[in-house]
Each structure stands twice: as structure tokens, then as C-alpha cells.
Amino acid sequence: MKRINTTINSLLVYLIFLWPVLLWSCENKQSKEKAEEKLSDKKLPNIVIIFADDLGYADVGVFGAKGFTTPNIDKIAGNGARFTNFYVSQPVCSASRASLLTGCYSNRVGVSGAFSPYVGKGLDPKEETIAEILKPLGYKTAIYGKWHLGSEPEFLPTRQGFDEYFGIPFSNDMWSKHPQNEHHKFGDLPLVENETIIDTLEEQSQITTWYTERAVNFIDKNKDEPFFLYLPHSMPHVPLYVSDKFKGKSENGLYGDVIMEIDWSVGQVMEALKRNGLEENTLVIFTSDNGPWLSYGGHSGSALPLREGKGTAWEGGVRVPCVMQWPGNIPKGVEIDEALMTIDVLPTIAEITGAELPKKKIDGKNILPVLKNEENATSPHEALFFYYKSNELHSMLSGKWKMYFPHNYRTLAGAKGRNDGIPINYSYVDIEEVELYDIESDISEKKNVAAEYPDIVAKMSVLADEMRKELGDKLTQTEGTENRPLGRVSSEGK
Q1: 264 phi/psi in degrees, rounded to 5
Q2: Are 73 and 82 contacting, i.e. CB atoms less than 8 angstroms apart?
């Protein structure tokens, strides 16, 4: 009996000392469970990417636009961030779009140039797009606009993770009314819904409105579940078309009218998000696929003060206007000067949504700390590389230094274009030796300082050689070891 009492007393002593610990443990477990429950209840963020076509660096109000206004795009910058050093991987349609959607340098996935209609090639369906990494999380996905990653059904967006597609499968100038059709024998311009041609376009004045109406309807329809909306406008790629509601509205002629209508479209999308209570939980990205097509004169935009435009690796061809908004995450009204690229969009979306990255290697990096403007956040890239044509490494960027390798490029050499939608001819120039520019102090790339900074040239040349080993370089006859194949199908009967 005495032994039992002693045991009971010992247990009581242990309970007295252990009770606070047990109570804390229980409360901590409950708090953790509540936190996890709260986290699981939090809605995944919606993603909206609006991609203009051939919009120049200076074609947005907050980037210095003249002769027209872009209040809705500017408002995104005011509610979020303006990115002053945002780049595309290549200054041309198909290649640029491949990089945005896959997070890869386009030559890694075999894409270069701008695909002609129905030639049996496109982005390989085995490559994973933003839409495909989001689908397993329950995202609804749609694209309304220009695709240009393959015209055959095997390459259309519905085969790359998109639930809905409405738009044109290639550039809006690839049709029988091309101003130089004697050189480009194009056929009809099809309007496609999912995988069915529903019409052939005789003119394009309603195309921006159609895309916008579809986008707004998609937001309204999917307000209760996460979605990814990709809105790649056909404009302001030539030929320029605008609806009556914006015809003659700008001081900059038809081009300005077109940009004002794109800005209206942005406003409609933003209003739909706000009306449905989604603005706070949506990442919105507005940017362009490359710089302006300068040979079209008054029917093209401006990249000033940058050098050259579309079709070159000079800053005017690859540096594009970019604004982003994500309330509570991207601070309001900030200017971010870090060098970023469209290849970074996919891995950043994966980070914020919890999506798995593509199984195959990508080149982009998670830039969320930079978007949030966190202290000491910098670009995760030691260097960015700019290929063009058929796997030619034309230039690279590292910090404030932009270096160019010997290559041939096109220029207007000061010639002034026409104002009637007819292009003038480029002249072509050879860069014969490596050139180096400090784009912080010389944004217009006027002074080649390669001779003054041989150590910088040497350091960047080492990085370039590493990239050549990986992705090749036709200019130096280097075969890459990690290039993946382009998608191909028979084009017979197309």
C-alpha cells in the first residue's frame, strides 16, 4: 500500500511539471492546424499576361509616349511596378513567344524567327508551357489573340495546356493583302476557335475588340476558380487596324489610335477583375514581344532613346516596356531597374502558385524577390544572352555591360520611313569586332568602349563561350549540346 501511494505521488509530481508542456504542445498543434487550414483556404492567385506585338519601349505613357495616352497601362505601373530593364530573348515573333511560355531561350526549344503559315513546324508539344504547369493545380486557362507557335492542329494552344483559344494562328500580315505580296505569297488569314477555323478575315478593325470581349467574358465566367489568361494582341503589328471608337482619337495618326485601343482593352480587363473582386488576388503583366518594326515609318512605334528596333539585338529590339501589378506583393509605384527577361515569368509563376517546374531544363529564374522590391534583391542572372536568326549569338548583357559579337544586322541608317503602311528597305551592316557599351551611362549605345575595358570583354567572353557550348552558335560554328528539337508534322494538304 505504501508503495502504491508513493507511485501515485510521483505521478502527480510529474503531471504538475508536465502539464504546462502538454498544454503548450496541444495549443501549438491546434494553432498549426488552424494556420494550415487558413493557408489551404487561401485562393491561388490568378495570372493575366497581356502581350502587345511590336510595341516599342517608348510607346507607353510612363515610358515617354508622345501623341497619345495610355492611362490604363500607366495605372498598372502606379498600382505596381515599372520595369526599366526588361528584355525579350529574341526580337521576333515566334521566338519571343516561345521564350515567354516555356521559360527557355527559344533556341533551346528549337524555335527561331517567325513561322510562316502551315509549314509543318511549331513548338514541340512535349515542351511545357505556363498553361501546362498550372493545369494540375486546377487553373482554367485561355488565350485570346495571336499564337504564332505553329498553325497545324498539332501545335495549337489547345495542345499546350489551354482550355480555350480564339484568335489568329500567326502574324496579321501573313495574308493575301500583305503590301508586298508579290514577295510573300500568303493566303487567307484564318480566325480560329479552339482548333476550328470559324472565319477568314477580310479586314481587322474589330480584332482588338473581339479579343477583349472574350477576355472579359472568361474572367466573369471563372471568377470563382483560379485562372490563367493570356492576351497576346495582334496589334500594333502591321497592318494597323482600329475600330471606329478609336479612329482619329490620337495626335499620332493611326498608330496612336491603335495603341489607345490596346490601352482601352487593358482597362476593360482591369475593370472585369475589379468588378468580380479579383484585383487584389491577380498578378497582371503587360509587356511586348519585341521592339518596333521601324521600316514601316509612321505605322511603327518608337524605342527612343534606345538604338535600332525589331529584328536586331540592339537595345531597341530586345528591351521592351513592362509594367506589373499584384496588390500586397508588388509595392505601389516602384521603379525596378534590375535586368530581367520574359524567360523569368514561368519560374516566378511556379513559385507563387506552388506549380511544379517543367521536367526539362529551363533558363529562366525565380524573380519574386525583385518583383516584391525586397531589400538587396537583384537579378538572379549573371548574364542574359540574345540570339537571333538561326541560332546566332549576337549579344549578351552582364550588369551594366552590353557586348556585341561580330555579326550582320539591319538598320535604316537614318532613313525616314513612309506613312502609308508600305515599308522602306533596310541596309545591312557588319560588326567586325567585339563591341562593348555601358548602357547605364550610354543608353543609346553610341560609344564602343571595348578597347578601354579589356578585362570586361575577357570576362564576358568566357560566359559567352560557356553558353555556346550549351546552346551553340552558328556564327562561330559551335554545336550546342543541349538544344532540343522543334516540333514537326507533315504539312501536305494544308
Answers
A1: -60, -45
A2: no
Give the count of beta carbons closer than 10 Å to the beta carbon of residue 366. 17
Annotated active-site positions, please? 93, 148
Cα gap 155→475, rounded to integer Å: 30
**pLDDT tens profile 231-249:** 999 999 999 999 999 999 9
Q: Hey, what amino acid is at 305?
A: P
At 343, list the grid cell: 524567360
Determine the Cα–Cα distance for residues 149 and 104; give it in Å rounded to an integer: 14
DSSP secondary structure letters along 240-262: P---TTTTT-SSSHHHHHHHHHH
Tell which phi-psi region holds residue 308, choosing left (phi > 0), alpha (psi between -120 and 50) or beta.
left
Q: How many CB atoms lie within 10 A of CB 126?
A: 11
Task: Output the nine-digit C-alpha cell for 291.
Answer: 521592339
* pLDDT tens for each residue of 409-436: 999 999 999 999 999 999 999 999 999 9
Strand partners, 167: 192
Q: What are phi and psi of 417, to 5 degrees?
A: -75, 170
C-alpha to C-alpha distance for 76 and 324, rounded to whole angstroms: 6
- Alpha carbon 280 to its chain centroid, in Å, reads 21
Q: How far apart are CA 369 and CA 324, in angstroms?
A: 14
| Angle between helix 253-275 and helix 207-221 axes, rounded to 10 deg | 10
CA–CA dist 310, 308 (Å, integer): 7
